[in-house]
Design goal:
- It contains ten helices and 16 strands.
- By secondary structure, the protein is an alpha/beta fold.
- The chain has an eight-stranded mixed sheet with strand order 8-7-5-3-2-1-15-16, with no helix packed on it. A six-stranded mixed sheet has the order 9-10-11-12-13-14. The chain has a two-stranded parallel sheet with strand order 4-6.
- α9 links the parallel β13 and β14.
- The protein is globular and about 50 Å long.
């Protein structure tokens, strides 16, 4: 507080000095008729702007246990307010709607600032229709994908029907996009899209998964959907280290290559998967690599819903 008062006092004195110098310049011009160009040599003080500060409050990321699927809630604290911007990525398989709705409503959430489908596979959009029907949705995002891969599943059709009923437009996200509207009013947050590439030529919807990096102060999260190594090739070497990783494709070996994991070297890794699932997720080879790089692993099949909080410097896991 003392530093802030000192800054205000400094600004006040500099303001008085500026006004005095300006009045002297006018007097010199009109009374002494000095050449106007000479006034350019009169130097005004340079203000020392305060350093960027962290948002007051904690950001929290909730990896909701939806079995073999993904559903992630991000709560970003607004500056100087006890309010949040709420972002939901994915909704798990069909049948998880009630669980997700109860979880969000228990947190007092009635509006989602953004609802994001990482890609249109049923274990990620299966309960989207229920979420859309229940909540006020300010914006809906999804990656573009080749027409030949357009899903013909009931999950996809039900999601589109609910979006149409509520007049919600689908906004496409691709490499290079920054979701500025979602971090407006939050001084230290940035949510950027690393992949997929525009017009990416893929043979599987997994490889149009949204790979997004969330920076909050000094702490970074990487959300990966079901992106496989094919998609990571386009951004290899460009991500750098992250603090928290949502393991790709529920911990599958084709989505968590050694080279990638050694580049990321996360302090914490969250694996969202179902108990005794039919795919053997997470694969043992991936768990071994995680062990070698020293990341602490949290699994929804073992721990249920996982919550990670940060004030921009410290990380707290629950």
């Amino acid at each position: 507080m003392a530093k802030k008062r000192k800054y205000k006092k400094k600004r006040k004195s500099e303001g008085v000095y500026t006004i005095v110098m300006f009045l002297i310049a006018i007097v010199l011009f009109f009374i002494l008729k000095i050449d106007p160009s000479l006034l350019e040599d009169i130097k005004m003080p340079e203000y020392n702007l305060p350093e960027a500060t962290f948002t007051k409050g904690e950001m929290s990321v909730h990896f909701i246990d939806v079995g073999q699927g993904d559903s992630i809630l991000i709560r970003l604290p607004l500056d100087n307010e006890e309010k949040y911007k709420n972002i939901l990525i994915d909704s798990g398989e069909s049948g998880n709607g009630k669980k997700i709705i109860n979880y969000l409503e228990n947190l007092g959430i009635s509006t989602l600032d953004a609802l994001i489908a990482s890609h249109p596979h049923s274990d990620h959009i299966g309960s989207m229709d229920e979420i859309i029907r229940r909540f006020n949705i300010k914006s809906f995002y999804m990656p573009p994908f080749p027409e030949s891969l357009t899903p013909i599943t009931s999950s996809y059709e039900d999601m589109l029907d609910e979006l149409n009923l509520k007049g919600i437009k689908i906004r496409e996200l691709k490499e290079g996009d920054v979701l500025k509207s979602l971090t407006e009013g939050i001084a230290c947050a940035r949510l950027s899209v690393l992949a997929p590439e525009k017009d990416a030529k893929v043979s599987d919807l997994n490889n149009v998964s949204l790979i997004m990096k969330l920076q909050f102060g000094e702490v970074s999260f990487l959300f990966t959907g079901d992106a496989e190594m094919e998609e990571y090739e386009s951004i290899k070497g460009k991500i750098g280290r992250v603090d928290v990783l949502k393991a790709g494709h529920h911990g599958a070996s084709n989505a968590n290559g050694k080279e990638l994991l050694y580049e990321l070297r996360p302090e914490y890794t969250v694996i969202s998967c179902g108990k005794n699932n039919d795919y053997g997720h997470p694969h043992n080879s991936v768990l071994n690599t995680f062990k070698k790089i020293g990341t602490e692993i949290f699994r929804t099949d073992l721990k249920g819903t996982i919550v990670i909080k940060t004030d921009g410097t410290k990380i707290i896991t629950e």
